[in-house]
Amino acid sequence: MSDQLIIFDTTLRDGEQSPGASMTRDEKLRIARQLERLKVDVIEAGFAAASNGDFESIQGIAHAIKDSTICSLSRANDRDIARAAEALKGANRARIHTFIATSPLHMEKKLRMTPEQVLEQAKQAVRFGRNLIDDIEFSAEDGYRSDPEFLARVIEAVIAEGATTINVPDTVGYAIPELYGNFIKDLRERVPNSDKAIWSVHCHNDLGMAVANSLAGVKIGGARQIECTINGLGERAGNCSLEEVVMAIKTRKDYFGLDVNIDTKHIVAASRMVSQTTGFVVQPNKAVVGANAFAHASGIHQDGVLKARDTYEIMRAEDVGWTANKIVLGKLSGRNAFKQRLQELGVELDSEAAVNQAFTRFKELADRKSEIFDEDILALVNADGASH
Ligand code: KIV
Ligand code: ZN
């Protein structure tokens, strides 16, 4: 089994499903560029059949992004799948992600279909998708609450039709780490052709265990793809958080023995960009990206860290993009320092003219205020009408 873990980011699809987090096409493209900088393996850019706006966002991202695979979600029907393939035309690497619910509750009450009908529809969807694109992911929605015997039949059948990734979501965040890990392991053992596909985990955070469940899916279950979002953005209590799961794999390589491609020094900028774009504030004590994640307040801790950083730090702040020696911005600061801070804050202005305009306003403010804080800079770029 490979020791490389695929990081599948769904900030622009499941993250956007968060009430109040909808993003414009330009905002999505800017975040996709940051995800590419992070070296995310797969970017789920949206749900092409959901709206013309989503279709166009996926199209734009598919053309602009070269290093990550671009993916569109689609229900398990020919129309959605064809629309996804259309939006992905021109991508260097494209993936269609098709899904149908497999739990008794969802099949009976939501889909009003029998298990046999669901099985047939799943097979037909993957077969249709495979005629358009080679890289097909199949998700069993509410997979964790499904009957393992039935789910194994569905998975075996879709792998036989050519699905290359199998995702087993904990759609409602009901799982417990050990149970979820064993659920995936048991499924893999039940499915005779299981090693013909990469297994993936997709966990929601309703009980605060999305990261722990995803890691158990990898460690116990043998999954090799994790679906996650920046800042854990997502429906209800959110999804597995990219920054936490990636830093857990990196920091505890001794335990997991796995690698990820992620260039972690872009994590903080990605977190800020998503927070500023959606208006979802990151709590100060949030792991990895919260303002206090690397702050030491008590005397004993400060003393320890000054003597040896390892006493109270298990990761390096600079490894995830926090600047160690923060330059204080004021009226004597130059344009380069200003531009550098914009970058650290995840702000991308559209042109050099826009940077100049923001810099002029910054200088005006610095004449009135001795120290300029990050909040001041964000306020002035917002006042300039910049999007970031
Ligand atoms: O949570 C979920 O089940 C999903 C699927 C569509 C993958 O987001
Ligand atoms: Zn989801």
UniProtKB/TrEMBL annotation:
Q: In which pathway does it act?
A: Amino-acid biosynthesis; L-leucine biosynthesis; L-leucine from 3-methyl-2-oxobutanoate: step 1/4
Q: Where does Mn(2+) bind?
A: D14, H202, H204, N239
| Cofactor(s) needed for function | Mn(2+)
Annotated Pyruvate carboxyltransferase domain ranges read 5-268
Query: Which keywords, in A-to-Z order, does the entry hold?
Result: Acyltransferase, Amino-acid biosynthesis, Branched-chain amino acid biosynthesis, Cytoplasm, Leucine biosynthesis, Manganese, Metal-binding, Transferase
**What does the record give under GO molecular function?**
2-isopropylmalate synthase activity
Question: Which family does the similarity line name?
Answer: Belongs to the alpha-IPM synthase/homocitrate synthase family. LeuA type 1 subfamily.
Q: What does the UniProt function comment say about this protein?
A: Catalyzes the condensation of the acetyl group of acetyl-CoA with 3-methyl-2-oxobutanoate (2-ketoisovalerate) to form 3-carboxy-3-hydroxy-4-methylpentanoate (2-isopropylmalate).
Q: What's the protein called, per UniProt?
A: 2-isopropylmalate synthase
Q: Give the source species.
A: Comamonas guangdongensis
Gene symbol here is: leuA
Of the intact sequence, the residues represented are: 1 to 388 of 512
